[in-house]
Amino acid sequence: MSFTRMMEGNEAAAWGARLSRAEVVPAYPITPQTEVISHIATFIAEGKMKAQYIKVEGEHTAMAAAVGASVAGARVFTASASQGIAYMEEALWMPPGRRLPIVMCMVNRALAPIGGLRPDHNDSLMQRDNGWIQLYCENSQEVLDTIIMAYRIGEDRRVYLPVAPCYDGYFVSATATPTTVPDQAEVDEFLPPYVHEMYSLMPESYRPRPFEMNIAKARYEVQQAHERAKAVIEEVDVEYSKRFGRGYDGLLEEYACDDVDAVLMTMGSMTGTARDVVDEMQADGKKIGLLKLRGFRPFPTEELQGLAKRFHAIGVVDRNTSYGSAGGGIVSMEVARALYPLEDRPLLLNFHVGLGGSDVTMRQIGYMADKTLEAVETGRVEKAVDWVELVDLGEVM
Amino acid sequence: METNRLFDEYYENSYIQGGTACCPGCGGPLFWRMTLEALGPKTIIYGDGPCAYCAIRNIKLPNFGIHFSFVADGSTGILAALAAKGREDITVVSSGGDGAIGDISFGKVSAAAERNENMIQICVDNEAYMNTGIQKSGLTPFGAWTTTTPLGKEAPKKEIPLIIAQHRVPYVATTSVAYPRDLQAKMKKASGIQGFKYLHTVIPCPTGWRFDPAKSVEVVRLGVETWVWPLYEIEDGVLRLTLKPKQRPVEDYLKAQNRFRHLSDDQIKFIQSETDTRRKRLLENDGKRIIL
Questions:
Q1: Which of A169, A249, A312, B127 is least crowded, fewest Cβ atoms below 10 Å from its Cβ?
Q2: In angstroms, what separates the C-alpha of B70 from chain A's closest C-alpha?
Q3: Nearest-5° Cα angle at A67, B168 to A208
Q4: Averaged pLDDT score across all residues of chain A
Q5: CA A369, CA A349: separation in Å to the nearest integer?
């Protein structure tokens, strides 16, 4: 039976894996992901989840075991964070090229040495080039729903790619928000058992996956799968919302964007705060809206191009750093590339904020919104890249 | 034509196919032919990169591999998937080279042994990183020339089989392609045992050891006869020497390979005395429990 209660993001993730009937869970603990796997261990111990839980000795092995299990035909779930994702990196390149629909939660946490235990997005964003689909979640409910959808997306024969539902450590992982856990039978109807049509490792049906020796062709194949995934993600979202009453607008969500001059673009947990700020500012007559970037890979280029024509300025909020980059954070550079072909493109501002998991306050969001509106008014960008936390905004609020 | 027919027939009945990416005289294809003959068709082989994988590519049975930093982990996943599907009739073999098992994946093999994963872990030991062009590994023996030890390796070889045995796994054995019956008997025994089985095999490498490819089997046989490469098994902690050949001087083995040609008489004497001591200790403990 479906039920609703307060639930932390990590428990919601464990429920997502359980409802998706993950068969193999190779995992290694790391803060702030730990509760995901301890909840799963409890589900299994209580006989409520039938999965092989492999207590591996490190993240590199966790992902390699995930690859082995997925090749051998099992639905696989795992989760990691920060240093763990970095340690796992060599293995993370294996599933996309092998077209394995593994689902792994990346619970965002800043990387050492200038990090801490709280979140920014460098750990998952540094995996942007290896072929994983990345969907950024805002709260526990979205984490749970996204995991179930992730299997449908990844296991779609048009896609066959691994999917990473990403969510902020602490702000999502350890913060309880109202969460509805759907009925198992409903999820079973939505998500059929995992069958990989490309190959089999079983002795009686052994079919090795044809090895593409032309590397450009092999890479293009993964690129095409990402292109096709855009439509599949939208499709699955629509179907999910029809069945369960909750949808997330696929890769990019517009929030209060009717008749606005400019928008902020956020990713992850700060989006919740930004919604409130935008509401307040609109009540004061300020024409600022919000775009929530949910899918970073594949990047919603066409969708963003379509929307951008309506705005005079976009303020991209980057909870990450890319030292020595062409300009600003990782998301802003993607946005710049996406918008460049437009003849009448909006002004682009970039803000670094919430680094190392520091709070992104309402005041900071208000500041960023004001700066973006100011650019619309003056017709020019005063500061292309703004390190908001280094600006004295007075009292914290 | 008659030769072609014989080859076709041979490969039809073998679990490995003709044509190989391995160097002439490599013991790899030989090893896999013997091993798979012993294990039969209900086997999945998971392997690491370079040399060990060159041979695996020619296997007709289900196989799959990653790089050499991935020993024993993909196979752990395969075992979990088989368990999830209720398939207990399949033997899972995990293969790694000496550089993988002795160095970069050492922790992985140790962890799989600790979890007592139900796999046969094989070490295909040709005593250096041969595929990258003969670089020293943790399992390169004392004195051996490699491109990174131009004056000979300073440290002795790691005793991996004994280290794995200390994990209290049910079965550990050393094998050699020069002794196919011994190798196949151990492989068959391992496949009947539940838990982590470790089989360490020495593979002759004419390219890296610097000898005539035609003499591959001869050279590894000398290794066994000189007691440089003793054949034993450790079952439930009890050591048993499976072959006790009349000892030949180590010089016979060393002189057969140019990787040892720079050794001084003193160094050869040192290797002889080390080998003698080890032989004595092995014989003293033959039939005894060595894992406390």
A1: A249
A2: 7
A3: 110
A4: 96
A5: 10
Local structure of residue B22 (DSSP, 8 states): S
CB spacing of B80 vs A54 below 8 angstroms? yes
A126 touches chain B (CB under 8 A): no
Contacts 24+ apart (CB under 8 A), A40-45: A40/A14, A40/A77, A43/A14, A43/A18
Q: Which residues of B touch A203 (CB under 8 A)?
A: 41-44, 61-62, 90
pTM comes to 0.96
Apex CA B38: angle with CA B158 and CA B42, to 5°?
105
ipTM of the complex, rounded to two decimals: 0.95
Place of tokens 């460098």: A122
| pLDDT exceeds 80 at position A271 | yes
Q: Considering only CB atoms, which chain A residues are within 8 Å of B107?
A: 57-58
Taking the C-alpha atoms of residue A133 and residue A159, their distance in angstroms, rounded to an integer, is 10
Of A50, A64, A202, the CB nearest to B66: A64
Contacts of B249 (CB under 8 A, 6+ apart): B226, B272
CA distance A329 to chain B (A): 33
Q: Where are the alpha helices (DSSP H) in chain A?
A: 9-19, 34-45, 59-71, 82-92, 94-98, 122-125, 140-154, 184-190, 215-244, 270-283, 301-308, 330-339, 362-378
> What CA–CA distance (Å, rounded) separates B180 from B203?
12
- Please, what is the average pLDDT of chain B? 95
Q: How far is A2 from chain B (nearest CA, A)?
A: 26
How close A358 gets to chain B, by Cα (Å)?
A: 36
Residues of B whose CB is below 8 A from A60: 69-70, 73, 108
CA B2 to chain centre: 35
Is A64 in contact with B73 (CB distance < 8 Å)? Answer: yes
Chain A neighbors of B75, CB-CB under 8 A: 68
